[in-house]
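It would be a great kindness if you could assist me with a short task in structural biology. Thank you for your consideration; the sequence and its C-alpha cells are set out here.
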Amino acid sequence: MATAATCQAGAALDGLRGQLDKEGFRALVLTSPGARRYALRSAPGLADGTAVLLTTDGTLASAPGDLATALTAVLDATGVEDGVVGADADLPWEVFGRLSGTGARLRPAADLVFADLARCAPGEVAAFAAAADLAAVGYTAVMDHLRVGMDVREISGNVDRSIRRAGGLLGWNDPSDEPGAAGSDLVTVRGHDPATAQLTATTPVRYALHPLLAGVAGYAAATALLSKADGPLRTAGDTCAAATEALLTALVPGAPLRDGYTAFARASAPHPAACRIVALRGGGASLPLLPDSTVIAEPGMVLGVRTEVAAPGRGTVELAETLVVTPSGTEPQARTPLRLVELY
C-alpha cells in the first residue's frame, strides 16, 4: 500500500480551493503531469507522486505507486471518505473499482483545473513573456544553422548553448510528443532520417521549443523545409498558417476557448489536421483543452497553442505559440513565424 505525504496547501492554490467549494466538490485529484507540478510547487516538501489530492480545507496529499493505489492512499490520508471528488483527467476503470467500497464519487473537473492553470496575475504574464523570449532565442539558434545532412543532435546542442547564454538552464518534456522525436528537454525535433539522424532536403523539419525560466514555461514551434516546397507541402503550409490565424482570431474575451478549435477545423478542412490549446502554468503544459470545454477566454490568460496540417506522403507542417489573452484578442509572445519557412 502506498503511503501518502500531506501538508497544508500554499496560497497559490487558494483560488482553486475556492472554485472546488463553489462547484460542490469535496476534493480534487490531480493525475496529469502539468496539474501535479502546479499543485506541488506550493509544497516543495512533497514528492511528485502519481496522484495529488487537494481538499477544500487546504490539505494537500501526494502518493506514489500505481494510480488506483495512490488515489486510495491520498483519500485515506486526507480523510475524504465521501462526497464528490473532482478529477482533472480520465481515470481507468480500476480506480472506480477501488473506490466502490467508499462513499467518494468521482466527477470530471478538467475545465475547473484548466481555467485555474490558464489564469495569471500581471506579474506572471511578464514572466511568461520572458520565457517565450527564450523560445524565440531557441528558434534563431535552429534556423541560423539548418542544413541538409545536419545531425539532429547538433540542433539540441545549438539550442542548449543559446538558451543558456540567454539565462535559461532547464526545459520541460512535453508528454504529448509522439515516439520517434529527438532532442532534449529544451527542444523536440521531428523530420530527420531515423536511420542516420540527419536532415534531408525534402522532409519538413518540425521542432517545438520548451524552455523554463525561473520555473515558468516557454512554448513555440516551427517547421522548416530545406528546399523549395512542392504543391502538396505548399498547400499544407498555407492551410496551417491560415487555420492557425483563424484559431487566434477566435480567442477573444467572453467567448468559449473551444471556439478556437471550431475555427481551426473550419479553416483547415478537408486536410488532415489537428490542434490543441494548453495552459502553461506549473512548469510545463497541461492536458489539452477538451473540445466540449465551457472555459471562457478572459484577459490575462496565458495559453499555448499548437497546430499541424499534414500533406500525406510528404510530411507535416507544425506551428505553436505562447499567447496572452488581452481585452481585444490575443498577443503572441515568442513571435516565431506562424508559417512554413522555406530555406534553399
